Amino acid sequence: MKKLTIILFAMAAIISACNQDPDSTPVEYDDTPYILEYGTFPPPNSPVATMLTAQKIALGRMLFYEKKLSSNLTQACADCHRQEHAFTDTARFSVGAEGDLGGRQAMAIFNMAWHSNGFFWDGRAPELHDQATQPIQNPVEMNETIPSVVAKLSADQTYRDQFVRAFGDETITEPRLGEAMEQFMFTFISNDSKYDRFLAGSATLTASEERGRALFFAEYNEFFPNESGADCAHCHSTILFENDQYMNNGLDAEADFSDLGRFEETNNAADRAKFKVTSLRNIEMTRPYMHDGRFQTLEEVVDHYNDGIQQSSTLDPALNATTATGLMLDAQEKADLVAFLKTLTDQTYLNNPKFTSPF
Length: 359
Known about the structure:
Blueprint: H1 2-19, H2 54-64, H3 77-80, H4 128-137, H5 146-154, H6 157-167, H7 174-186, H8 194-199, H9 207-217, E1 246-247, H10 263-266, E2 275-276, H11 298-307, H12 317-320, H13 331-342, H14 347-350
Helix pairs in contact: 2-6, 2-7, 4-7, 9-13, 11-13
């Protein structure tokens, strides 16, 4: 009898072990830091970028690709910000979850940790976590509400577990949604273009690319046409190829302003038709160009700056100085400038598996 009892207990233990959920390991808070690697770039402007955690980034990645953030489960952030195009949209205006068109071209996403002067074309979101949740609630974009998103995610055990790992408990809130997506986007670093390798001494520019590089950084000089450059670095400066400012780049004359840009946020007349200066990194992959996507090619963009600047009261002074003569670039110089711009394409970034869908 005693021997039979032992056998029965042993069998019960075996059955119990077989029935255990292999994933039944308790879900626990995990604040393991994520170290941002940015190579030769200067330290990020955002202090948040020094406080990243692997689990918050993992959650942000899930949310970035999650269609439950939209009203009808058809759209995620990644649908208008696609990695192969440096996380922008090739459509002039993106189509929202309910079929509505946006009013401005979707902005590319990379090197966000170095921005310190607002987000969106008009800067209406002070921080990246503010920007992250606005499209969810925009009627022409994802057309959803935060309470509805919270309800959908709270019904999903996978998300409840990930919020525990990232924040310590299952509570889902708008600030947490924003923080997680912000941390994920802060990891979007693009710093391995041909031009970066040229600076490091491991790549050589072609003759055309080198001539374009010289034009890019040379200042405009109406009195010495043979020495005058394209003066692109006036606005697209530093290794980031942007200046984190809002400027009017002469797309329209004052009477033709149809989008007042930064003015809509500040109500300052000096900000009329000013828009955030975007980085030229990966510019080859981010067409169409300008806040309204009016230009389809880089050649059109160069033509605009060469001889298409429109005067207005808020036009950047440096661009205003070029309106009498244009940039005086000939066909070869324009081709060289475009060739240099294409050296800013970062295939490592465009194909980095860390940024792909986790689903």
